[in-house]
Structure formats: C-alpha cells, structure tokens
C-alpha cells in the first residue's frame, strides 16, 4: 500500500466517516432533504469544459442532462456518467470535476444526467430518466460507441439500466460496455449478507447499516422490483462487456461472487479489477499510486 493510500484511509478512520454515514434511514433522509434544498442544479460557469444543458423528458416531467465536452472531443463516441450519492443526495457538483477529467483524459464527451432523487421519487422514476437520457444518446451515437460509467450508487444505476431496458424498453440496443466503480448494491441473499458482515470491519467508509438504510428509504415509495436495489439478481442478457472496480476489502465487495456468477450465467463478458487495502471508489480518485493505476485502466477501456 502506498503512503498516500495509508494517509487517506487513516484520515477516513480519524474523521469517523463510517459512523457519520451510519445514522439510520430517518436521519439520513432528513439530512438529504436539507442538503438537496441547498444544492440545486445550476449550470457550471468554469472554463474547464464546454457545458451544454440538455432537457430529458420523462412521464413525470423534464430533467437536465449536462453535456461536458472539450473542443477536441471525439464526435463518434460518448460516455453516460451516473454519479453517486446513494440515489439520495444531489451530489452532482461534488463529482462534476471527476466527469470533466474523465472526458478530457479519454477524449470523449460525457453526458451527466441530473436524475430525480429518492427524497422525492421512486427508484424506478430515477431509472426511467436515465434510460431516456440513454435513448437521447442513441439518436446521436451507435450503441457500441457508448460506454456507461457509474460510481457507487451510480454504478448500481449503470447496472440497472440494462435490466430496465430488458424489462421495459427491449427495443433499445445495449451500450457497448459498462464500467462500474464500487457499485452500491444492497445484499439480498443470506450469503451476500454474511459476506458483507465479514467485510465491514475492513472498510474505512461504508458500514452495513448505511447500505441497508437505502432499502428502508426506498420503501417510502411504491413497490419496486428486487433488481432495482439488488442488482445481483438483474437481467443483463444482451450486454456484451462489463468491468467492475472494487477495493477487495470494501463492504460493497460482498457482491463480487454474485456478479461473477450472474454474468457468466447470462453470457456477459465480465472482468474484475480488485485491489486489496483500498477505499471505496478509489479507482476514480487518482491521487494515490493505486488509484492512478486503476484510473489508467478505466481510460484504456474507453479508448
């Protein structure tokens, strides 16, 4: 483990980040409502990229999708980037720099949907908006030239996009590939729950109670299919390629064996980038040696 990684993990533990996140579903929901009220979407004004606000129509209203590009971005490829925050926090701004950097380094435009959140909508509403955003991309790009990238809960949304298409929009072709960084899933089987309990102590950031809290929050809305919060039981038929990035010791890595089996069963070319003694979503934080290596791997799969 690099010195920088040791420092990051040490700081996470000193800050008690794990306990701060594990507040119970009621407190988490209330704080998310307050946070989202203070952090609405506004068009970025920096000069780090060319920004364009697109509008995505759904059955329940219109939502913005931010197109992020550079003057030399490839005209024939694109990334659909779904950001994390548990599907609950309006964390678009905190992860915008990540999307800008990724698009610049890979030389591709990034489409960044500002999707509806679980404080006001069901998870199926969220997936409808993301699917409509993907449909918008299909009018401009070939499916094989689109890569869906998701981080944390955004990784779960990238996975759910495929099941959503299979269940509700079978006429849509699947994206060429998916890159999932520490996808935020809730365990559904006894084996998954036991594995998450084993891993929890090695994670400096994400607790099991934090993971389960999102299931409780989502239950505020109408009944949803199991795959929405439990992507390990999703339908990925027709997807050609997927790559997962996990810290092997993180709580959410409970799903690795389940995804490995599911993808093999459904004929998906799946690969896993696992690194011991890392932190949640390290692959998109190229500030330590291990993160830089994983980030370069992501770029290789975008070119």
Overall mean pLDDT stands at: 91
Kindly estimate the percentage of residues that lie in beta strands according to DSSP: 15-25%
In CATH, the homologous superfamily goes by the name Alpha/Beta hydrolase fold, catalytic domain
What's the helical proportion of residues?
Answer: 25-40%
CATH topology descriptor: Rossmann fold
Number of E strands: 8
Query: Are there runs of 5+ residues with pLDDT below 50, and where?
Result: none
Structural class: alpha/beta
**Succession of helices and strands:** HHHEEEHEHEHEHHEHEH
Overall geometry comes to globular
As laid out across the biggest beta sheet, the strand order is 1-2-4-3-5-6-7-8
DSSP helix count?
10
**What is the correct CATH architecture?**
3-Layer(aba) Sandwich
Explain the overall architecture.
The structure is a single chain. This protein is an alpha/beta fold. The protein has one domain (3-300): Rossmann fold (3-Layer(aba) Sandwich), CATH 3.40.50. It has helices at 3-14, 17-21, 25-38, 92-106, 123-138, 153-168, 190-199, 208-218, 256-265, 289-300; strands spanning 50-58, 61-69, 78-82, 110-113, 146-151, 177-181, 241-247, 269-275. Helix 3 crosses helix 8 and helix 5 crosses helix 6. It is globular, with a radius of gyration of 18 Å.
